[in-house]
Amino acid sequence: MTYIRFLSNKWAIAGFTCLIYSMSFSAFGSEIPVLKVGSPVKGELSYSNSENNNIKPHTQPQSHTQSQSKSLDINVPCDKGDYLTGYVESGDNTMTMDIIDATGEISRRLIDHKTDKQKFYSVAENCAEIWRLSGSGAYQIVLEQRVSLAEQDLEGSLENHLESSDALLSPKVSALRESLQKGQNTDSFWANIEALGTPLIEDTDSGTLMTFLVRGHYNNVKLLGGPSNNHESLQQLADSDTWYKSFIVPNNTHLSYQIAPNVPQLPLSGRARRIAIKAVAQVDPYNHHPWPESAIDKYTTKSTVTLEDAPKRPWLDVQKEIPKGELSTFKFTSSILDNTRDITIYSPAIDDSQNNRDDAVLLYIFDAESYIDTVGLPTILENLIAAGEIPPVTVVFISNPDGDARARELPANPVFADVLANELVPQVNKRLPVAIPKDRTVIAGSSYGGLAATTIALRHPDIFGNVISMSGSFWWKPEDQTADDKHFVASEVIKMNKVPVRFFLSAGVFETARGNSSSNGILGTNRHLRDVLLAKGYDARYEEYGAGHDYFSWRGIIGDGLISLFGSEE
Question: How much is the pTM?
Answer without folding.
Answer: 0.87
